[in-house]
Amino acid sequence: QHKNTKHLQNPRASLENMKAGVVLAVILMAAIVMVERGQAAITCGQVDSFLAPCLAYLTGEAKPSRACCTGVEYLKDNTPTTADRQAACKCIKDAATRYRGIKLDKARQLPKECGVDIGVPITPDIDCSK
Question: What's the domain count of the chain?
């Protein structure tokens, strides 16, 4: 056999690899379309992890920690679309009901204290659909 035809010895394996590549391409394209159509990519788990370091500030500490402010920055960076911001808003409202002792005035001041403009106030009565 000729050395250059060695890759043709198992055409079934090549066909399987090509099918796997097509499936992967379809999955990636579907993910891109979902993001482009405005479906939120951020999860409540991400929002919770970004803002978890802020609990001490929200329940009484005088100033937010650097970790808290970094989380607020990550939240802003990971919510570029309206759908993302709406999803994050709902997550924050849900989290506020789970954690007792959060001071609403501190929640409103958190972005300002961290020097981050998130574009919406943090209040329990905010309409997340807007």
Answer: 1
Contact present, 38 and 83 (Cβ < 8 Å): yes
Q: Which CATH number covers residue 59?
A: 1.10.110.10
Three-class DSSP category at 38: coil
Question: Is residue 88 within 8 Å of 74, Cβ to Cβ?
Answer: no
Residue with tokens 């808290």: 68
**C-alpha–C-alpha distance, residues 51 and 85, integer Å:** 14
Question: Is 3 part of a structural domain of the chain?
Answer: no
8-53 pLDDT per residue, tens: 556 665 555 555 444 444 455 444 444 444 556 899 999 999 999 9
Instruction: Identify whether the C-beta of residue 65 lies closer than 8 Å to the C-beta of residue 113.
Output: no
pTM of the entire predicted model: 0.67
**Amino acid identity, position 95:** A
